[in-house]
Amino acid sequence: MTPEERAIALLSRYKIKGPPVDVAEIALEEGARVVFQDLEAKVSGVLVQKDKTATIGINALHHPNRQRFSIAHELGHYLMHADRPAVFVDEVLVHFRADPPDTADYREVEANSFAAALLMPSAWLKQDLAEKNIDALFGDRPLEQLARRYEVSTLALSIRMVNLGLLAGIKID
């Protein structure tokens, strides 16, 4: 099952039909406690699993939109990568999100894809855009409005829309 399919299945299981998605509640329902802590600026979130319990640590100093994406990202690790840990520290599984994209492994890519699909499902975005024309060359106010609706950053929304082929005016080489 792809990260996108996993996210859609999760939304369906919890009967979530529109934004914003309460990712902290989903994490809790899935068995992962979410705690907010002052972390280093470069660390957005951490997943710790020990003795069949899971805790998602989120940087309390980051913007709430960033925190939501981090919760979704760490939830992706929890649901998809529990059997393939990245690092063990004192018998604790820890997934850090501070790796630059060029060194990120497939687990980071999958967790990002899962988070984007969970927070911004393609069907919802397509429905929201059905009668609107958003073009990055003509200002970002519509993007800001849509980002507020989904409670994500305009950057996360832009990346998601480009990846789905829904955003015109940007050429990615």
Protein model, in words:
This protein has 173 residues and is α+β, with helices and mostly antiparallel strands. The chain has 2 domains: 3-119, Arc Repressor Mutant, subunit A, CATH 1.10.10.2910; 121-173. Helix content is 45%, strand content 16%. It is built from 7 helices and 5 strands, in the order H-H-E-E-E-H-E-E-H-H-H-H. Helix 1 (3-13) packs parallel to helix 4, helix 3 (64-80) packs across helix 4 and helix 6 (141-150) crosses helix 7 (154-164). The protein is globular, with a radius of gyration of 16 Å.
Gyration radius over CA: 16 Å
Query: CATH topology of the largest domain, which one?
Result: Arc Repressor Mutant, subunit A
Percent helix, as a range, is 40-55%
Give the domain tally.
2
Number of separate strands: 5
Characterize the largest beta sheet: strand count, sense, and whether it forms a barrel: 5 strands, mixed
State the name of the first-level CATH class of the largest domain: Mainly Alpha
Oligomer: single chain
Please supply descriptive tags for the structure shown above.
16% strand, 173 residues, Arc Repressor Mutant, subunit A, single chain, 7 helices
Secondary structure topology:
Blueprint: H1 3-13, H2 23-29, E1 32-37, E2 45-50, E3 53-59, H3 64-80, E4 87-89, E5 92-96, H4 106-119, H5 122-129, H6 141-150, H7 154-164
Parallel strand pairs: 1-3
Antiparallel strand pairs: 2-3, 2-5, 4-5
Helix pairs in contact: 1-4, 3-4, 6-7
